[in-house]
Amino acid sequence: MQRTFTLAQLPDVARQGDPAVCTALAGSQRTPAAILEILAHDPNWWTRLTVAENPKCSGRLLAQLAHDPSINVRCAVASSPKAPATTLVQLARDATAHVRGAVASNVQRTPRAIIQQLLDDPNIMV
pTM of the prediction? Predict the structure, then answer.
């Protein structure tokens, strides 16, 4: 059964932490930016990943999510067509090869010098 909420209820719903509801909110392009901000701090990494993949996620919020402890969230940030170049430069130095590989794959946003640097990465995952 699909639940519906008023706009005024969304902040409370986002803070209550029901994983299914929060992830659905995080993935909706109709979710207001203020709610995405709340969901970016959700304890569930899948919800935070879904925020990073939302086309309405701002560059500023992606920059915050670039510090997420979850490799999957950082990979989603690195793959985002809205990721700020400065965030991609930071993620190009990530300790995890998968994150660096996602930066290298984001050829539309990653500065060419960083892509060139990543071509020399010793890890084949990059």
Answer: 0.90
Residue 97's pLDDT is 97
87 and 120 fall within a common domain = yes
Range of the domain at 107: 59-126
pLDDT at 126 over 60: yes
pLDDT at 1 over 60: no
Cα 121 to Cα 51: distance, rounded to the nearest angstrom:
29
SS3 117: helix
Task: Tell whether the model's pLDDT for residue 94 goes beyond 70.
Answer: yes
Q: Tell me: do 82 and 50 sit in the same domain.
A: no
Whether residue 68 sits in one domain with residue 113 = yes
Residue carrying structure tokens 């590989």? 101
Quote the distance between the C-alpha of residue 5 and its chain's center. 24
Q: Is 114 exposed, middle or buried (0-12, 13-18, 19+ CB in 10 A)?
A: buried
Distance (Å, whole) CA 107 – CA 25: 29
The number of CA neighbours under 13 Å toward the Cβ of 1 is 2
Distant-in-sequence, close-in-space partners of 122: CB < 8 Å, separation ≥ 6: none
